[in-house]
Amino acid sequence: MALRKGRARNPEGRMRLVEHLRELRRRVLLALAGVAVMTVPGWFLYTPVFDALQAPVLAVDDAALTAALIFTTPAAAFDMRVRVALWVATFIASPWWLYQVWAYIAPGLTRTEKRRSLLFVVAGVPLFLAGAVLAWLVLPNAIRVLIQFTPEGALNYMPATDYVRFVMRVILAFAIAFLLPLLMVLVNALGLVSARTLLAGWRWAVLLIFIFAGIASPTPDPWTMIALALPMCALYFGAVGIAALHDRRVDRRLAARDAELLGPEA
């Protein structure tokens, strides 16, 4: 009842700055709590996940290039398990923390806008995971290329914590990059940016995508960068296409409403 009265007094869901900050803190804490809970299955998934993470190094070692992961301190193995558990939890809990992002935005939206913006959660999870899968497909070749720079006669023994941190950052960078086109669709659905505006900056968008791909790419060769940049470009133009369809529907609806208001005088 109190919620209904509050909504009646404030139908647009407006909040003061302090209330926005409190709500933001609440959603961040809920997202972190979800990740913390998912560290429990992440802890028990450590062995198969770590085996998969070190597989590219073992494959290189089998190819007559000596390479191996080492633990340099007594606590390194425990620290590794905690890092991997949190990293796995981030992916398992992705529906939850993406929902928290949506829930923070939703109070200020109309009912129609809420339905449209829910796409952020529905499509965000597979896109996030697709970016991680692409990174995983690129990594073995990237690691092999990097290890080949080892001088002849030298041994490439890598601290396990440094190697896994490197792999986790690359995979997360790919995964987050795949969410950016979804943000474009979301801001268009909210009426903040038109498809024409998004398309007008396509040259800068492609340039920034390749710059990001060059920075996020784990190897200096151009093929890894292209493997990341091309799917992102395709997602960008796909997002522009979806935004254009949305704008066309909005224009038709506005035109029909104007014609109805003008009536016979038109």
Short summary:
The protein is mainly α.
Write structural notes for this entry.
This protein is mainly α. The chain has two domains: 15-178, no CATH class; 180-266, no CATH class. The protein has twelve helices and two strands, in the order αααβααααβααααα. Strands 1-2 form a two-stranded parallel ribbon. The chain is flat, with a radius of gyration of 24 Å. Residues 1-9 have low confidence and may be disordered.
List keywords for this structure.
12 helices, 266 residues, 3% strand, 2 domains, mainly alpha
For the secondary structure, the number of strands is 2
Helix-strand category:
mainly alpha
Low-confidence stretches: 1-9
Order of helical and strand elements: HHHEHHHHEHHHHH
Total number of distinct structural domains: 2
Average pLDDT works out at 78
Read across the widest sheet, the strand sequence of neighbours is: 1-2
- Compute the gyration radius: what is it? 24 Å
Specify the number of helices: 12
